[in-house]
Amino acid sequence: MPFLSATLDRVKPSPTIAVSTKARELKAAGHDIIGLGAGEPDFDTPQNIKDAGIAAIAAGKTKYTAPDGIPELKDAICAKFKRDNNLDYAPSQVSVATGGKQILYNALMATLNPRDEVIIPAPYWVSYPDMVLLAGGEPVIVEASLDTSFKITADQLEAAITPKTKWFIFNSPSNPTGAGYTWGELKALTDVLMRHPQVWVMTDDMYEHLVYGGFEFCTPAQIEPGLYDRTLTCNGVSKAYAMTGWRIGYAAGPEPLIAAMRKVQSQSTSNPCSVSQWAAVEALNGPQDYIATNNEVFKRRRDMVVDMLNQADGVTCPMPDGAFYVYPSIAGCMGKTSPGGNVIKDDEAFATALLEEKGVAVVFGSAFGLSPNFRVSYATSDDALSDACTRIQDFCASLQ
């Protein structure tokens, strides 16, 4: 019999991690590479948060904790949901895991049966469909478009729901597009969900605090209280607090679901890192002013990148509402040939040729379920972004 699980045949490795790894390898080998693939702030973790982690080590808070989080962190998460989203949760409704990815995975593993369907708007974060597949479910992809600013409509959501639909995964602001749903746009979606009581909502709010230009974040259970009992509101400290490596994600939802997720986690990783949990307590309870300061930097970078990419031949780059990504269309580049002899037959070919010929690493759009596009992370220095965008302009101008 085969040694490896047949389930692995349903999934693929993370393309974003693969691009970042290749860029690092080429750079280590002496190539002039600018990596725009990683979804990671280039800011250091704020000092007060680092100090809290150091203090936890010094105090010997390095033992096992409860499988899904220390009481102090659950209290801080409850306070955050009330403060930021006007959502009331008790600590028994909160789960803490080793990053936001594990939160989503635990929920899917705890709830999906074979052939259960999960609606995922595209463009999507690369891991959503594969996590559904690993858990035995079936992803149902609903494609947005540039014409709708990469947001699906209520009619599209309605058409995708079947008796087999168990979850709707919702991400705003979006990875990879940075698109954010307004209150009215999200209310139209929640109105649809209210007509289908078998459908649960999984919200990925990881980029909640990274919004620009007056955009106001909102989350489904905040807009429609009727969805409270079938919504898992997911978040984490990775992006807004520059804590990607600390690996703390969290969610709040109905107690039976949280208990089921706890069971999954107790038999996989058990508790998240104890030191990271204490640092996350400080992140959520401590000063929040640096978020606005960092956002001003991100906004400046966003504006520069959008302006420069829209000057590239064959490229159309919409202005995102949040996160730190842009998702330009390269429809005008399709079918052309690069100076290196690479035919741009799709966005993966574009990204490969751009890396080989200009030393710029981006993630191709098909990884996110919508082509022909590519994703740029502008969570890096202004100089690197300016240099990279100039190289992209030169590359596009050279296509014949």
From TrEMBL:
<comment type="similarity">
    <text>Belongs to the class-I pyridoxal-phosphate-dependent aminotransferase family.</text>
</comment>
<dbReference type="Pfam" id="PF00155">
    <property type="entry name" value="Aminotran_1_2"/>
</dbReference>
<dbReference type="GO" id="GO:0008483">
    <property type="term" value="F:transaminase activity"/>
</dbReference>
<keyword id="KW-0032">Aminotransferase</keyword>
<dbReference type="InterPro" id="IPR015421">
    <property type="entry name" value="PyrdxlP-dep_Trfase_major"/>
</dbReference>
<dbReference type="InterPro" id="IPR050596">
    <property type="entry name" value="AspAT/PAT-like"/>
</dbReference>
<keyword id="KW-0663">Pyridoxal phosphate</keyword>
<dbReference type="InterPro" id="IPR015422">
    <property type="entry name" value="PyrdxlP-dep_Trfase_small"/>
</dbReference>
<dbReference type="InterPro" id="IPR004839">
    <property type="entry name" value="Aminotransferase_I/II_large"/>
</dbReference>
<keyword id="KW-0808">Transferase</keyword>
<dbReference type="InterPro" id="IPR004838">
    <property type="entry name" value="NHTrfase_class1_PyrdxlP-BS"/>
</dbReference>
<protein>
    <recommendedName>
        <fullName>Aminotransferase</fullName>
        <ecNumber>2.6.1.-</ecNumber>
    </recommendedName>
</protein>
<feature type="domain" description="Aminotransferase class I/classII large">
    <location>
        <begin position="32"/>
        <end position="392"/>
    </location>
</feature>
<dbReference type="InterPro" id="IPR015424">
    <property type="entry name" value="PyrdxlP-dep_Trfase"/>
</dbReference>
